[in-house]
Amino acid sequence: MIQINTEFLLESVGENSGSAEELEEIQLASRRASILARQLLASSRLEAFDQNLAEAALRKRAAVAKSAGDVVAAAPRVAETILLVEDEAAVRTLAKRVLIQKGYRVLEASDGAIALRLAAGHVGEIDLVLTDVVMPNLGGRGMVEELRELSPGLRVLFMSGYQKDEVFPEKGSANRVAYLQKPFTSETLLLEVRGALGYAT
User: Which of the residues 18, 61, 118, 140 has an alpha carbon 20 to 30 A from that of 110?
Assistant: First the structure.
């Protein structure tokens, strides 16, 4: 989430400010920290970690995010309603801020059980559920199963710090699940949200 915070600051200070260079250094350090976190996570699972591959993946994500930023910036303001479900307050607050700035209406909940109660009061209003996978009380997958009993066509975008194939190891339809890898930038978040809503990206 450091990356998103520095993006907000860069927007506020402008490209010509003396602070912009320092903020860009913070973003670079954040990306390096992301590589280290992935290395530690891989080590904890006793898996081999290829740092060159990880760095290449991050460069690819950065390039995609830059292209996505152009698409998002050109997109008109929207009025869809998103149910944001995330137990980490910092992540939830930042994601909500990014979405609201682009014109989305955001309903927020800190776990799946709270989200179900919230959704019950907004039947027919929710265009997308943006949810973490692992949460206390009721996780994202269980919550979505219950929500889809009432709204079978409900659009969902899952997010997690784990790789998609670890969270959804099933073959077939699971591969088509909309998925946002943490940590993410504001551009990546908005790009994935638009894709999950059915817009061309």
Answer: 61
> Would you say the C-alpha torsion 92, 98, 101, 104 has a positive or negative sign?
negative
Amino acid of residue 123: V
As a whole number of angstroms, the distance between CA 92 and CA 157 comes to 14
pTM (2 d.p.): 0.68
128-132 and 156-160 beta bridge pairing: parallel
The one-letter code for the residue type at 148 is: R
Rounded CA gap, 21 and 10, in Å?
A: 9
pLDDT, one tens digit per residue, over 106-123 is: 999 999 999 999 999 999
CA angle (55 as vertex; 50, 60 as ends), nearest 5: 125
Biggest CA-to-CA distance, the chain: 54
Beta pairing partners, 131: 85, 158
The predicted-structure confidence for 126-161, as pLDDT tens digits, reads as follows: 999 999 999 999 999 999 999 999 888 999 999 999
Distance of alpha carbon 130 from the chain centroid? 8
Collapsing DSSP to helix, strand or coil, 160 comes out as: strand
Question: What is the structure's pLDDT at 173?
Answer: 59
Question: CA-CA distance, 200 to 132, in Å (whole number)?
Answer: 24
Phi, psi of 135, deg, nearest 5? -145, 160
Write out residues in the chain with pLDDT < 50, as ranges. Answer: 46-47, 76
